[in-house]
Amino acid sequence: MIDWTSFVAPCFHLNPISNGSVLSVNVDGETEWETRKAYQAVGSHDSSVRIKTVAVNEYGQGTHIYVDGNPIKFMQGHNLFGTDNLHSLLYGFLSHLCQMPEICLLPSELDRKRWAQGDIELSRVDCTYMFDVGSSDNANAWIRYAEQYATLSHRGKGQIGKGSTLYFGKHSRRSALKFYPKGEEFKKHAHSDFLLNPSLLDYANKSLRAEAVIRSMELKRLNLNLVKNWDTDTCSYLVNYYLKRLNMSEVKALVSDQSENLKPRLKAVYELWKLGHDIKSMYPRRTYFRYRNEIMKEIGIDIAVLQPSQKDDSMKNVVHFIRITEAKPMGIPDWAYGTDLYYEPPALKAIF
């Protein structure tokens, strides 16, 4: 599902859109720079997006807008489920914004044609999957376990951020992967109307949310910074691409005869790891990664995945580590089709 997006789109409007300005003034009272603050447009069930003018013509009229927010939530009021079709979603979303008199967007026929062609520049896209793990308790148990024993290629171990969200690469300028129990988040932030819907609550409570955040640098590297380069499979491809980089293997110990084949210096490191020591904190960075790569090559064990300490009984009752690849992906429920709970984007072929 397409979640949060940030993009620039061509769209004519007579007066620049902003919510005031932020400027820098030097000691002589001269303005060094000025930038518009975004206007907050309110959509379904009080959800909102930020919008502002980013380009004007010679007459001071707006030619391009910047939009930052969650289009599916803006259209249907929640983001429990939605479409994978970024192209149609943004076309329908922009068309809806143009119907809001307070924004006063007046797109030309050429602007609309460019939307349909996908001439929209992206600077962020969040792609999500929902997995049925049975309950919020199971989702939380998975997150606690993954915090300790899962690693992401080129990002390392995850860290718990706000609430129960597990981040991999939280501060990366390129991309990040995060997991959280959707039921808890839904109860905190959903509109009160949705909290009275038992079908939505049940759907949210049994789900673990996986979310890939792809930012501008990574979008350009992947040649996905323009909407025209996306198709209906791109969203699921990206989520799976990052999930496959996640080391989800369960913690395991080697039998003694296998470890006997290790060189003495590697065997000592392996024995420390097996006892639950954090090897990364014990050696210089380059030494640690050399040992890690050599042990992985020799016996297929990743010492970045911590073992429970033999002196620590806190893990005895931990829930079995649920593999993401074995959890059941959650699609759009049948009961949502044909209702206001699911926004179905327009078919572009039917428009042009």
From TrEMBL:
InterPro entries listed in its UniProt record: G2P, G2P_C, G2P_N
Domain Replication-associated protein G2P C-terminal as annotated: residue spans: 270-336
Pfam family of the protein (one): G2P_X_C
GO biological processes: DNA replication
Start and end residues of each Replication-associated protein G2P N-terminal domain: 1-232
Name recorded for this polypeptide: Replication-associated protein G2P N-terminal domain-containing protein
